[in-house]
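Q: Got a minute? One more chain.
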Amino acid sequence: MLFLNTFDVFKIQVTFMRSSLALLTLLLFAYANVIAQDKLDIKWGKVAPADFDLSAKKIDTSNYAVIMAAVGDLEFEGNKNGGFSTKLQVRKRIKILNKKAEDLATVVLYTVTSQNGEVQVSDIKGATYNLTGDNVEVSELRKDAIFTEKVDKERGRKKFTLPNVKEGSIIEYTYVLRSDFIFNLRPWFFQDAYPVLWSEYSVTIPDMYNYVTLTKGYHPFHAKDQKRGFQSYTVMVEGDNQRSERVSVNANTTQARWVMKDVPALKQERFTSTLANHISSIEFQLSSIRYEGRPERSVMDTWDQLVKSFNEREDFGLYLSRNNGFLDDELAKIRFKNTQDTMQRVKDVFTYVRNNYTCTDHDAVYMDKNLRDVIKTKSGNVAEINLLLVALLRHIKLDAYPLILSTRDNGVTSELYPLIQKYNYVICAWQINNEYHFFDASRSMLGFDRLTSDVYNGHARLITENQALAVTLDPDALQEVEKTVVFISPNDKGKLEGILSDELGYFQSYDLRYAAKKMGVNELHKSIKKSMGTDVTVDTVYIDSLDNFDVEAKLNVQFKLNNAEEDILYISPFFGGSRVTENPFVKAERFYPVEMPYGKDETYLLNLELPAGYVVDEVPKSTRIKLNENDGMFEYLVQVSGSHIQLRSRLIINKATFDAEDYTTLRDFYAFIVKKHAEQIVIKKKS
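A: Always. Here it is, folded:
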């Protein structure tokens, strides 16, 4: 409509000024060109020799393939069950640049057959195109090369591999996916592990259904438009004498279309919680239904409705509101150290559950079995164990509640929409003096009032008796503090010996305890010895508080330097893994945020006494740099006093998450640290 108005204006002007005709022609040509750019310039099923040349696209040759086009078209259709299903047609064209991407020629599509509905795959077609001279050779997918396999009672899969695929091939395939599950429409991922030149998704929805759309990612839409339409649907309903009858349903429709062009490959990089948070995509959640002549009916729960549902579910909250007299026997097994100290009572209950129950699955929001069976088997999933902890605390008249969340590797959740399928974890919250303490009894080596770093993933929900309170578990609020002190001095024979004392942060301590459990203490000691480097011989390793899960562990190592009799000694000042040896940010650019699990404050102190007859020849220069204005700093101080050298290195990162715009600054910051930590102390014998 804007273009038509513009055209009318120019039409009047042309009447009076013929000289404007050239300008009008130019505008019309530009507009037509924009329209053309909004359309995909591909003829499906026809590949010309020119299509193999992608040099104009400036594709990074390190990619093994490029997705030339991916197009999805979803629409509703009436089904035989008296309702609606969706039909999604997918078309893809891919250029294979390297044989390492030949696995893209194998496609697996999943089907579902259950009491609640079906997901079926049909109309599979495909071909491989190879350029030989000026001729395009076509190898079509044979029907007998499409295999149907059974996965389990409800799920199956269709699998096919396109023939004659090699480097330089173009592969193309299409299929139709029909689904009875309309609560969540099929999401569309515009981004992939390979570059995508064109990705388009169209969805045509009848007006009786209203969906909430959720978009993710950082790549902009090339086109995004809607248009109104009308469609007649045929639905099979059960009539008299249980006979199926055809019913025609007319509805206005909205067709929405989204397009992205030249989407860069999305690959896993260091300090990424999950790529699911960042891949350019769109999801759909049914919000309400409005049939003609009837009031609109909401199908998406509000948070208040969700609380009621949670508290009434037998696999979640129903046991928490009951008398639960059977818990008396379990509480009788707990040796309370001080029944007058409420904090100690909570700690005693938590410690008992943690030490006596085994978690079988750390990915669950609901219980698979009731609390009686959990107690009987002394095992359960994360929801069962932590809901048992909530029930035990409530049974001794304390204010305890479940907290549902999504772990970092599962993706972030929406504070606006109660999409429960996005949650995968439950912990226990206890309130005292208007303050909440959080516990996770499913982790056998996790201390009281402690959580693992993977649950700090932003928005979570506290399920009380009558409301779902928003809680933020912010990784930016975490600061891991570590202090390492090393003393090196000559023994009575003039050889350099050292003592390393490393006060670990809590998350490092947890990882160390987990490693000790997994590999055994002896193997852990061997690993620590190896981390000290080849320039030293380790005499003893001792870990303090390894079995005290409530406090940070402390690592102590005694060692000798191996090169103590040479005329010139090159001493790396960092021992025990304290040196930053590599830059975790090696890519030239990054399109999504850097997500560290926590901030850090690492201090390293070295006190070195020179052996008799040696003098200092060279030491690193002192320096101090800042990361942005207040995001962190690196300090490196060296002082020489006679035969003593003191060195102090401190690295502070004040937050966990950095925007993509800060990536280059962060990369350069770490590059400087790596270079500085590589510098050596040089001492030599006196002339």
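A: Residues 21-37 form the longest helix (17 residues).
Q: Perfect, thanks.
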